[in-house]
Write a structure and sequence with these properties.
The chain is α/β, with parallel strands linked by helices. Helix content is about 50%, strand content about 20%. An 8-stranded mixed barrel has the order 16-17-19-20-21-22-23-24, surrounded by 6 helices. Strands 2-1-5-4-3 form a 5-stranded antiparallel β-sheet, sandwiched between helices. A 5-stranded mixed β-sheet has the order 10-11-9-14-15, sandwiched between helices. The protein binds ligand C2E and calcium ion (2 copies). The site of ligand C2E has 23 residues, from β17, α15, α16 and β21.
């Protein structure tokens, strides 16, 4: 049942987007993790490599420098040599050969060695290459001139050697120069007067590899100077070799170590494995979470469905119909005056429940829901908004016709009696409906109006459904106002009880008094019971009112043992399963014999719930209470009830009595009614007796008792007691029955308000 109507209810399960969200978030999370891990590792490796290269570059520079310093030191040794100078001065070629030339030929300290005269020409030269004249290819005039220049500004000193890189015929040489100095005259000689010793060491691949080995620089080699490069090293594993003028002559290259990258490569496999494991685990978790979220969203949807539907009937509940009414399309229809709301309330459902039990009542509701749903069909939405309250919402361009047809279908649906177990029960609903006024932004106003119309339907017992009319507002407002006053009165103790005596015509004695409730509001003045009692009955306040009257009556009876009282019991009270207990509790509390208390009941309750009423009345009768059928002649006036239910008294309604002298028909009716009651051994009380003429007439037809202004208006207890005392005194004095309308207030001990 529920899904068809719920289909239109806007559902917003919180977890609706969770599943896709989780997947997306997880994917993003994994991606971010991977990128972050790899990015960080890559960055760290790069940093590591950069640092390694920087320190290697420093080592290359240091190695090259050390190579220069070594050659300079050797050159200093050869130059700062007294004997060498003397041999040079002597032109002792043999000595030179044996002591200087062997530095090249024997030790391979360098590749070439020359002694340059002070005037800048090569005096003697040696090379590792045995070929004569081979030195010329190295010690070119340009190099000789350049070495002269290199040492020129150096002081004459034992450590004065200078060095530079120099390119000769595509080869790069390390050149070192020192003056050949007579050490003993070093202080006095001029540098320019001294010959020079020049070493040339080629930067061969072997030498560089050896240098690399010493400094753990792999693949150190010489490369070409790239165009536009003027010096300085870089992260690429290269170092420019400059000559004395800063001109690049060669470039040292080596293979950059990449410890970071190597580490990364080493770690790559395990990292990849770990990542794979992570992705797998994450995916599994994702799938699980997704599954959980799906289950959650499903159960959430179910929960929303459940929260919006009535478990007993499967119909929408109040929340469900509210959600439906809040939907934009409904609001739009509302604005266009294309919506109608109907309220249905089962008449006297409490009586149904009390008669056939709650289980039976539930069965009736389920059956009723099914019938209503069939009647509504696809034309609208049906909701159960309370125990026995339903709501129907129809929207569309033809709401007026739709509603008319729906009312017909509803009428047919309710025509058949309901079966609940072995019981057959007729169920009727009060239906009130209201069309949404054009331009209204939501259904609030229509709901309010439908409620008012429903109340009117209930009041008038109209079965065809009542459409809201503006004129209903006044009554509604009044009803609300009275309800407020009554609530306040109950709280502030503004209710009181007055008594109207009932006179037995045969004995001419006051046999009892009817307790009648009064509401005297300090703010609003007095409100008549026939105004506030119906309000109390529809608002559930009647139980409190009834309990108050009963309590007051019992208290008064306890004080005055000669006083018997009739109390009015509303049908609503009688239907209350706790009523009998409340009643016996109260009489016991005050020690009142039940037979002193008469309970007046109207026919309504007998018609609506004959079974429960019969059951309750018999129970009350068994407990010893006296039962009176009140207002006879106003309602269904079925004589049958008198035999069917255990009444001892019948109260003929005032409307019959008023016409006694005027309508022969009414007089005949009263006559036969009295005869019948006498035959059934029932007491007959005529209500509303205002004149002696009535009294005489009623007495002549055999009426048992009278009640009315002719005897007394309803008065406060004190006045009643005084009245009764005076009445019995007169009665005792006079042989002729003498009655009169009570007029004076009699001062008595017990005081109270007189209101009639
Ligand atoms: P009712 O039970 O028929 O009570 C009799 C009503 O007729 C009283 O009106 C009374 O004042 C009025 N009445 C009595 N004699 C005459 C008469 O000679 N002429 C005229 N015109 N009226 C007469 P009241 O007290 O206004 O009560 C109205 C109705 O309110 C009662 O009708 C009864 O149905 C209901 N009611 C009053 N008290 C209670 C109560 O405590 N509980 C319940 N459930 N209903 C109550
Ligand atoms: Ca009454
Ligand atoms: Ca009455």
């Amino acid at each position: 049942m529920q899904s068809s109507v719920l289909g239109g209810v806007p559902k917003r399960p919180m977890s609706a987007g969770i599943t896709s969200g989780i997947t997306a978030n997880l994917a993003i999370g994994i991606l971010l993790t991977v990128v972050t891990i790899f990015g960080t590792a890559w960055w760290m490796a790069e940093q590591h490599d950069k640092q390694a290269n920087q320190s290697l570059e420093r080592m290359v520079v240091g190695g090259v420098d050390l190579t220069r310093r070594r050659l300079e030191a050797i050159t200093n040794d050869y130059g700062w040599w007294e004997e060498a100078y003397l041999a040079y001065e002597r032109g002792d070629a043999e000595w030179m050969d044996a002591n200087i030339g062997t530095g090249i030929t024997g030790t391979q300290i360098a590749d070439a060695l020359a002694v340059v005269t002070a005037d800048g020409t090569v005096g003697t030269a040696w090379t590792v290459d045995e070929t004569p004249e081979a030195w010329k290819a190295i010690f070119t005039p340009e190099l000789v001139a350049r070495t002269g220049k290199l040492i020129a500004d150096a002081k004459v000193d034992r450590l004065a050697a200078r060095s530079m890189f120099f390119a000769i015929a595509g080869k790069v040489y390390l050149i070192a120069v020192q003056r050949i100095t007579p050490v003993s005259k070093a202080e006095s000689v001029k540098g320019t007067d001294l010959p020079l010793v020049v070493f040339a060491q080629e930067m061969t691949a072997d030498r560089l590899l050896e240098l690399g080995r010493q400094y753990l620089i792999s693949n150190l080699r010489l490369g070409k100077v790239p165009l536009g490069v003027s010096g300085g090293g870089g992260a690429h594993g290269s170092e420019i070799l400059d000559d004395a003028d800063g001109k690049p002559v060669g470039r040292l290259l080596w293979t950059s170590p990449r410890p970071g990258r190597d580490l990364l490569l080493q770690l790559a496999a395990p990292m990849f494995g770990a990542l794979l494991a992570f992705v797998i685990v994450a995916s599994l978790i994702s799938m699980r979470v997704r599954g959980m979220a799906l289950a959650l969203s499903q159960s959430e949807e179910e929960a929303i469905g459940a929260s919006r539907s009535d478990s007993q009937t499967g119909l929408l509940n109040r929340a469900g119909i509210n959600a439906l009414m809040a939907a934009p399309d409904c609001a739009e229809r509302c604005r266009m005056g294309q919506a109608v709301v109907a309220y249905l309330d089962v008449n006297d459902f409490k009586a149904v429940n009390d008669t056939i039990g709650h289980h039976g009542g539930d069965q009736v509701i389920v059956e009723l829901a099914a019938r209503l749903e069939k009647a509504v069909g696809g034309h609208g939405h049906l909701a159960r908004i309370g125990g026995d309250e339903f709501m129907i919402l129809i929207t569309g361009p033809d709401v007026v016709d739709d509603m008319a047809r729906l009312l017909q279908r509803l009428g047919r649906a309710m025509a058949e009696p309901f079966m609940a177990g072995s019981f057959i029960q007729h169920v009727h609903c009060a239906i009130g409906y209201a069309f949404s006024p054009r331009g209204s932004k939501d259904l609030h106003e229509s709901l309010r109006r439908a409620d008012i119309a429903m109340y009117h339907a209930k009041q008038s017992r109209e079965r065809d459904g009542v459409c809201y009319e503006a004129s209903m507002e006044a009554g509604n407002e009044e009803r609300r106002r009275v309800e407020d006053i009554l609530r306040a009165a109950l709280q502030k103790g503004e209710l009181s009880v007055v008594y109207q005596p009932i006179l037995n015509l045969a004995s001419n004695r006051i046999v009892r008094a009817e307790a009648l409730v009064r509401l005297n509001s300090a703010i609003h003045g007095s409100i008549r019971p026939d105004v506030f009692i119906p309000v109390a009955e529809t608002t559930g306040l009647i139980e409190e009112v009834g309990a108050f009257v009963l309590e007051q009556a019992c208290r008064d009876m306890a004080h005055f043992p000669g006083l018997n009282v009739s109390v009015n019991i509303s049908p609503v009270q009688l239907r209350d399963p706790g009523f009998v207990a409340m009643l016996t509790g109260t009489v016991n509390k005050y020690g009142i014999e039940p037979k002193r208390l008469e309970l007046e009941l109207t026919e309504g309750v007998l018609v609506a719930a004959p079974l429960i009423a019969g059951q309750r009345l018999r129970a009350l009768r068994e407990l010893g209470f006296t039962l009176a059928l009140d207002d006879f002649g106003t309602g269904f006036s079925s004589i049958g009830y008198l035999g069917q239910f255990p009444f001892q008294c019948l109260k003929i309604d005032r409307s019959f009595i008023v016409n006694l002298g005027r309508s022969v028909k009414d007089a005949a009716l009263v006559h036969s009614l009295v005869s019948l009651c006498r035959a059934l051994d029932l007491e007959v009380v005529a209500e509303g007796v205002e004149s002696d003429e009535h009294r005489v007439m009623l007495r002549s037809v055999g009426c048992t008792a009278i009640q009315g202004y002719f005897v007394s208006k309803p008065v406060a207890l004190a006045d009643l007691l005084a009245f009764m005392a005076e009445w019995s005194k007169r009665q005792d004095q006079s042989t002729e029955p003498k009655v009169r309308l009570i007029s004076a207030r009699h001062p008595v001990k017990h005081t109270g308000n007189a209101m009639g």
